[in-house]
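pasting for the record
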Amino acid sequence: MKAAVIVFPGSNCDRDCKVAIERSTGAKVDMVWHGETALPQGLDLIVLPGGFSYGDYLRCAAMAALSPVMTEVRAAAERGVATVGICNGFQVLTESKMLPGALLRNEKLKYVCKPVGLEVTNAQTRFTAAYNGRREVEMTVGNGEGNFFADEETLDRIEGEGQVVFRYLDNPNGSSRAIAGIINAKGNVLGLMPHPDRAFEEELGSADGALLFQSALASA
């Protein structure tokens, strides 16, 4: 199995993601600089990590969405390659129009960093199959702009089509309908604000994030 982690200027969870994927799945992981115009061949998984791409100037992820490598990330996703955006990576996916909605400032205008309980709202996806019917998992959030927003029509559509994958049990940032993670209509692109890369071994407080990476690669 092969995976790639995209590294933007300001990414700070890129190495966390590499270690989490390697230890959880045994996959070979390449670090790909955002200025590259090609991705490694034969990828089974692409991860856009958390951090503060371009220092969060202008608007979170607005500049990263225009990085050269994103042309290839979009093309790979269109071919069906599993693609995960975590925290800032979720912001990149919405700014790139690969996922609907937007991530706004947290409701109380404060940075939130803590473990959170999540409902696995859709267990029938390529990213959640390894949870084997478990309805509740735990990961960690760390964001200042993690407030997922979409208009009511879009929210109704993604709810009705099973695109809401994770929901907060106790909403930490004011996200619409407590949404923590969504997939695209095709089912191969996932964006989530909680960090599976900070919850892949019991020593970290939870190993639930490992199951997400295992699910993504098992279905490749």
